[in-house]
Amino acid sequence: MRTMFKARIRTGAAAVLSTVLLAACATAPVGTGRSAMVEGDLNALAEDYVRLILEIGEREEGYVDAYYGPPEWAAAAEANPRSVDQLTQAAATLTRDLEAVDPVGADPALIQRRKYLLAHVSAAALRLRMIAGDKPAFADEAFGLFGIRPEIRPLESYQPVLAEMDALLLGEGSLAERAATFRARYVIPPERVEAVMQAAIAECKRRTEAHIGLPAGESFDLGFVTDKPWSGYNYYLGNSKSRIEINVELPIGIDRAVDLGCHEGYPGHHVYNALLERTFVTERGWMEMSVYPLFSPMSFVAEGSANYGIDLAFPPAELDRFETEVLYPLAGLDPAGRDDYARFIALSRRLASAEYAVADAYLAGRIDRATAERQLRETMLMAPERAEQRVDFIDTYRSYVINYGLGRDTVQAWVERQGPDHWETTERLLGSQILPVDLLD
Questions:
Q1: Which of these, 219, 217, 214, 252, lies nearest to 234 by C-alpha position?
Q2: Taking a C-beta distance cutoff of 8 angstroms, is the pair 397, 4 a contact?
Q3: How far apart are CA 43 and CA 30, in angstroms?
Q4: Residue range 216-262, pLDDT digits in tens
Q5: Which residues lie closer than 8 Å to 398 by C-beta, 6 or more apart?
């Protein structure tokens, strides 16, 4: 999960780097001929874009997920943010200015850059309308913010998967109760969570750096928190540094160790942000990539690639071996029944998109909170406390929920269409301005 906190102004080395990059961007040659003209125009508009996003962040806490550009831009946004109406007009002006940049004959990377900026300004414009009180329909909101329209299937369509789950989890009680009992056998004891998570993240990193060239000096801090609507997030700090936090308020299943290690760390959010920073901000001076608006197409790629990265780093047989030989002993758990648990997790994944139907109905007011929690328990087999937390998540993030399952499936399909070297393709995706719509091609 991405963070939901107001970005801090970076200081020290990050601020110095940003200042140097800004000067270099203004003085270094940007190419020749048509490409030089287009890049010069886009460089100027990129600054307008960053300032727009920072000022929206002053109007909605958490909108700016990360920022590591010039600190004076953030300071200016904080000191004198424009009103929502003024920002809406600024977004419209920026869209017209970007559309006026004629990319014909320019380098393909610049054509994609203009397309990327246009998509993100469009998402920002919708978010401004939402801040002003507009509440689009779930699928319309998802498409406007993240660039993909989800399929919302009726909850009844998940009955075949629930029937498979029923056959797997024999015993007394409702299916949801049996699922809770089964899941409890694989919960990491609280006093062992840190050791298990450290081992999982270390292995995620080892596997990732065998395939992806990570920036020199990259690192993360690991922390444990409670009272959050998410299970984990990565707070990217700039200069290839992250703060990874794990929510320990609710029980953590042994399967979540690798999931969180890959998703939040390697090759997930930490690597994605570090590669974007190196590729665009450090090497090219493309300042639009120094800011991360949470409700934007970036998040679909970020969450989708982070979830796909779990399967990429740990094919089933290797995951089974690592968990059985390393994580289960660290957690003090008996790996007996591991095959059934793996089957349980696979079936749970097939139920994940049921959340879209629940969120759609709940956010539109067609069902109340109690009904939403009940539907999550009955269709996705969530424990009561997990269902309550998940509705808190839906309240906070709304259509953001599509970015996980749909994002993973879309990224996976695109990567596998590119050829057999899935690691190379993933690295290219993580260091690119590829948009969600591009993943459908």
A1: 219
A2: yes
A3: 10
A4: 999 999 999 999 888 998 999 999 999 999 999 999 999 999 999 99
A5: 138, 141, 359, 363
